[in-house]
Amino acid sequence: MSPVSSEFQPARPSVVLAELEARVARELSLLDMPHAPWIPPQGDPNNGDVLDAVVIGGGVTGLAAASSLLLRGVNKLLVLDRNPPGAEGPWATSARMKTLRTAKSGMGPTPGVPSLSPRAWYEATYGAEAWEDITFFPLNDWVEYLRWFKEVLGLPVQNNADVVDVEALSNGWLRLTAEVDGVTRLVTARRVIVCTGYGGWGGARLPAVLQDLPKKLYAHSSESIDFRALEGLRVGILGVGASAIDNASTALEHGAASVDFYVRRRSVPTLHRAKALINVGCIEGFGYMEGETRFEFLRLLQADGAPPPAHSVQRLREAGSHRLHLGSDITAVNADGDSLTLWANGQPHSLDFLISATGFEVDGRRRPEWQRLLPSMKFVGDDPELPERARQAFAHHPAVDRDYRILEAVPGTCPGLRNVFVLADAAIPSQGVGAVSVIGAAAVAAHAATAVIGTLFAEDSALHLNKMNDYCEPEYAVDDWPDPVESANPASTGRA
């Protein structure tokens, strides 16, 4: 299957957006954006020019971070994304919903420019009335909007670029090794912003019972799946969250003979407590709480599980019949040719294909690019004040500060580590879910961009001070000062 689904085609010809793009240009000019470059150029004697920032990941948070930096004068910038153009993030590959799961308001990578917002794009494409008619942003339009956002701002995205190594240099810079279209490329950067969403700091979580099966008989829900090949087959789904529901619906819509859900829980989750925290305060203030309090929030969010949204359940109902096996204790899955036998609660279940919608795990040991830096990192689980259960759950989550910068296990031993910012699932225990949310992406990225800008200026303070000291452009010539005249102000002669 192509990494970009054929269903996701441009909603309208680009000429329709010409007026909107003129508005974008006008609004940017009113804000004097992009700001003029202000960072003194740096050079690496071993590798030529040095970039001021590299963003790893070109999804919604990566685009938000890149745009926030570029518009504020950080122009020596590069976004590296391992996927082909148009397939950044999960939206055109493994996201199998019909619409986004989050309500349409207040989302997107917009850096405070109204005409760059998803709403502006949608209204320009379909009309203002069409925006009022939708509750959730259609997925195919979301894919096209993000492509447009990237192009209209000219964001420097290098696709097919897989970062395989990050090395901290002695001066605090970072050297990245990326495989770009099969060619190794070295990039030196002063700051690195990690925007890899869910799974980017580890990978897919797969039950142990699947790991010895032939790969043709199962897939994780985050992988590319040829659903056309599932026509007439018996499909099993592990899990009952939003991703599980979307994959089941897609399988049924492509003619699967049956779909069976296998769920460890004894009831289907229906309460989405996270909705109580969809506000600016939580997105921007989560990291200001003490660690134990943050854990209580996360514990409560996870206690009931995250239910699928109502419109996803309705889609499943319309897609066809299915069976739900609650309280399933799966002890084995055996392959026999082109079929599977799944053993749950001592009973066999015959299947042809299994989709594991079991989420992701955070564990940098699974990612080659972080192997050099892992020994120097402090992890959330290192906090002795946290309950033991939290320490175990977050043992591999890097601890990040309020600016999303990774903390060192021993301060001062690896200065380059403090120049890595994490806006991904690995930061959730420290900063909440804002960085992996379409609602929180813009605010989180702007916050991190401000920290990047501030630390770059402080790091270059001597150069800026020299520039200030060498400044020699007078406001006017001394000879231009007017000749003195007798003052007509009585106060100038003193009091009578």
Automatic annotation (TrEMBL):
Gene3D superfamilies: FAD/NAD(P)-binding domain (3.50.50.60). Residues 54-198 form the FAD-dependent urate hydroxylase HpyO/Asp monooxygenase CreE-like FAD/NAD(P)-binding domain. Keywords: Oxidoreductase. GO terms for molecular function: FAD-dependent urate hydroxylase activity. SUPFAM superfamilies: FAD/NAD(P)-binding domain. It holds the Pfam family NAD_binding_9. Its EC number is 1.14.13.113. This is Cation diffusion facilitator CzcD-associated flavoprotein CzcO. It comes from Paenarthrobacter histidinolovorans.
